[in-house]
Amino acid sequence: MGKSPGAWTGMRKKRWPLMILLLFSLSTATVFFIRSAFDSCSISSSSEASIGRHFSEEKGTEITDTEVSKTAQSLKPNPLDFMKSKLVLLVSHELSLSGGPLLLMELAFLLRGVGAEVVWITNQKLTESDEVIYSLEHKMLNRGVEVFSAKGQKAIDTALKADLVVLNTAVAGKWLDAVLKENVPHVLPKVLWWIHEMRGHYFTLEYVKHLPFVAGAMIDSHTTAEYWKTRTQERLGIKMPDTYVVHLGNSKELMEVAEDHVAKRVLREHVQESLGVRNEDLLFALINSVSRGKGQDLFLHAFHESLQLIQEKKLQVPSLHAVIVGSDMNAQMKFETELRNFVLEKKIHDRVHFVNKTLAVAPYLASIDVLVQNSQAHGECFGRITIEAMAFQLPVLGTAAGGTMEIVVNGTTGLLHPVGKEGVTPLANNIVKLATHVEKRLTMGKKGYERVKERFLEHHMSERIAFVLKEVLRKANSHSHA
Ligand SMILES: *[C@@H]1O[C@H](CO)[C@@H](O)[C@H](O)[C@H]1NC(C)=O
Ligand SMILES: *[C@@H]1O[C@H](CO)[C@@H](O)[C@H](O)[C@H]1NC(C)=O
């Protein structure tokens, strides 16, 4: 470390509270800032957006902001500065610790950070416990976000007065008619609709009939945008408004942990101990809510196959372990039982570890060697855990589907395999490849990290969102003057 004792103490002072928080404080309010990696494509926990090269591709403004020093960075004007004093209404379909609402809260705080006036309303059923809702509301109130009832006159007045209204997820569309009623046409021209899901049952007119008339749609990946374009046309006969693809970025807090070697080592030791693995073991982890759509079953089949390959070929490799983070027996009893039976039947229970669902993914990212992203069907909308893992210099073994294809560079920052049963053997081969080629594994991790620094950071996200908000404001203004 070669630092003076003073500097060292300073670093430690800063570091330890954060680590203690990461490790032990799983209470909802405090882990709030650590992005959840769960269920990017579902409504109860949607999300994943990040910002990256795609705007550059579309708008021809390539931003390769590598390794700008922290000082230079903080001197740069915030790209969202133009939102100062603007009134923004955020409409959430729920208030919970799931991806979609957390993402909207991130936007709320980015906007508060530049002095925008931000109002939050939650339209739908409150699925979480009172405690979670209370702590989230307080988190927002503490940062100057106003929280109104979705149905009151205040919500209507705010919608009419606002410079910008953001609807989060397709389901939030129900709020328009239900609350605004005859005022809907006045509000639509300043609505930005943020969409994070890729599933058939969102394509119902009840949710999205006003979609063609809003100022813009902001979608987490090109794949998801394409999906919405074709589905709305084919199923509903409606046209998408101007659509902006906006990839997410990693929070500053996550990057801070990812770049802190001492913190990582401590987290790693802690997790190794809790899993009962040794430092030299190789950990392949899938970090997603356990469900068939996320492909834990196929991953375990591939993992078993890779162990057989290693045995057959008598390869000299450290002992391999599979870690499934995101277990929830109460939610997916049948599927979880199936996974455990498979593990017992194949006698790999000493190599497979199940970890309960948690929002605190950083300790696991600090402890594993490879992230497996095995989402099936259309894949992830974006897959925020993928960029989070890359920040920790982990190579990614991912399905060639959805947002993963827009994040992982096949052969450079990871290896892709097909979705479905056809993907099992390719994934097994890729597991063996990364287990046997240490150099390749480490290089891919480094390349992934470089890619994150180039396009998947918070400031990239702010830049991309700023571009979209400017467009929406411009359109809303031209409309109101027309
Ligand atoms: C994991 O969750 C289950 C219930 O879903 C619970 O019974 C178990 O104690 C939890 N395990 C840990 C280590 O917290
Ligand atoms: C990924 O690269 C490998 C070779 O490195 C290739 O065999 C495979 O088809 C590629 N997959 C995709 C989806 O491009």
UniProtKB/TrEMBL annotation:
The keyword Transferase applies. Residues 272-451 form the Glycosyl transferase family domain. GO terms for molecular function: glycosyltransferase activity. InterPro entries: Glyco_trans_1, Glyco_trans_4_5. Keywords: Glycosyltransferase, Transferase. The keyword Transferase applies. SUPFAM superfamilies: UDP-Glycosyltransferase/glycogen phosphorylase (SSF53756). Pfam families: Glyco_trans_4_5 (PF16994), Glycos_transf_1 (PF00534). It comes from the Eukaryota. PANTHER family: GLYCOSYLTRANSFERASE (PTHR47252:SF4). This is Glycosyl transferase family 1 domain-containing protein.
